[in-house]
Amino acid sequence: MDPIRVLVADDHTLVRAGIRALLQALEGVEVVAEAGDGREALALARAHRPDILLTDIAMPLLSGLELAGVVARELETTRVVILSMHASEEYARRALEAGAAGYLLKDSGLAELEIAVRAVARGETYLSPAVSKHVIAEYLRRTDGAPATGPLTPRQCEILRLLAEGQTTKGIARRLGISDKTVEAHRAQLMERLGIHDLAGLVRYAIRTGLVGPEE
C-alpha cells in the first residue's frame, strides 16, 4: 500500500518540526515537504501533489483558509486539514466552506492526529470532537433544530447522517445490515440528488440542514 503523503505548513520552525516528527512516527505516513508560509505551501503542493496538506490557519502571505480554497479548486487529489487553536463554530465553518476536509485543534494528541490523517486520506471529513460539537450545535440553533433534508428518502437520510458522523462504508454496511455496494450506491444517489460531488460537501449539507445532532 502506498504511503499517505503529507505536506506540512506552519510559519513556526519548531512547531513544524514537531508536527513532522509526529507524522513520521505513524506507520504508512510520509512527509514529502515543509513550508513556512502560504505561498510556499501552494507552490510545494503544486509540485508534490501530496495526499494531504496539513496547514496552520494563520499563515503569512496566504492564510490557511485561502490556501484551502485554491487547493480545492486546483488539486483534486490533495485534501487540506486546517490546524487551529480556535474551537469555535465560526472558524470551523469557514474552513469547511473554504474547501478544507479537516479541522484539527493544535492541542490534539498523537492519536487524534493519526485518526484525522487517515480519515481524510480515505476521503472522509474530520473535525476535532470539541469543534464538531460547536459546529453542529450552532447550525441547529440557526435552524431551530429542524432538519430540512428535502427530497431524501428515510434510508438516504440515515446513510447521510452516518456519513456525516464519520462512519466508513464498511461500518455503515455492518450497522444497517446491507452490503458495501448498497451503501456506495446510496452515497452516489445522494450526491446526484443533492448536486454535491464530494464527501465533504455531504457533511456540510448534513450539518447545515440539522440532520446531525450535537454530541451528548
From TrEMBL:
SMART domains per the UniProt record, alphabetical: HTH_LUXR (SM00421), REC (SM00448)
Q: Which CDD domains does the record associate with it?
A: LuxR_C_like, REC_NarL-like
Report the protein name in the record: Response regulator transcription factor
Which part of the chain is the Response regulatory domain? 5-121
Query: Sorted alphabetically, which keywords does the UniProt record give?
Result: DNA-binding, Phosphoprotein
Residue span(s) of domain HTH luxR-type: 145-210
Recorded hits in InterPro entries, A to Z, give: CheY-like_superfamily (IPR011006), NreC/VraR/RcsB-like_REC (IPR058245), Sig_transdc_resp-reg_C-effctor (IPR016032), Sig_transdc_resp-reg_receiver (IPR001789), Tscrpt_reg_LuxR_C (IPR000792), WalR-like (IPR039420)
The protein's matches in SUPFAM superfamilies, at most eight in alphabetical order, are given as: C-terminal effector domain of the bipartite response regulators, CheY-like
Q: Which Pfam families match?
A: GerE, Response_reg
